[in-house]
C-alpha cells in the first residue's frame, strides 16, 4: 500500500464530511500512523500510558497487546489510521459489561470524528458480542471533550466516581458513561 501525505484538509467539503470514517483492525504496517498520536503528550494526557518515544516499543505494544485484543480497531479517515478504539470485555459475573476506550490524533479533535467512531462501535458491538448488555466508558472529569463525544454518541452520564483511580501518579475523579443494548441508537 502506497503511503501518501495525509493532512486534515483531506476532509471532504460539504455533505457528510465524515462518511469516510471507518474502523478496521490495526496492523503492524500502520506503525507510522500510530506514532503520530502515540507520541503526542496532548493525546496521552488522559490515557493510562505515556507517549511512545520509539517505534520498537510501539511495535512491541501492537504485537503483544493490540493484535491479540478481541476488539481493537483503527479509526480511519480514507482508510488511514488517525486513532484507535477498543472494547474490553469483562468476565464472570461482569460478562454483560464491556469498557470502551478511544484515542484520536490531536489534529482531528473537535471535528466530530471521535463521535462518529464511537457511534460505529455502538452500532455493531452489541450484535458482534450478543452477551454484552452494557458498554461503559470512564472519563476523567477534566476531559470535557471526551465527555461531549460520549454524550453526542448517545451515552448516558451516570455520575462521578470520586478518587476512582490513580492516573500518572494522582488520584482522579472519573465520570461514568453507559450505553445499553436496549438504548435507542443515535
What order do the helices and strands come in, and which of them pair?
Layout: E1 21-25, H1 31-38, H2 41-44, H3 55-66, E2 72-77, E3 80-89, E4 97-104, H4 113-128, E5 134-140, H5 144-152, E6 156-167, E7 170-180
Parallel strand pairs: 4-5
Antiparallel strand pairs: 1-2, 2-3, 3-4, 5-7, 6-7
Can I get a quick summary?
The chain is of the alpha+beta class and 186 residues long. Helix content is 26%, strand content 32%.
Structure characterization notes:
This protein is α+β, with helices and mostly antiparallel strands and 186 residues long. It has a 7-stranded mixed beta sheet with strand order 1-2-3-4-5-7-6, sandwiched between helices. 26% of the residues lie in helices and 32% in strands. The chain has helices spanning 31-38, 41-44, 55-66, 113-128, 144-152, and strands at 21-25, 72-77, 80-89, 97-104, 134-140, 156-167, 170-180. It has 5 helices and 7 strands; from the N terminus they run E-H-H-H-E-E-E-H-E-H-E-E. It holds the Pfam family Acetyltransf_3. One of its GO terms (molecular function) is acyltransferase activity, transferring groups other than amino-acyl groups. It comes from Salix udensis.
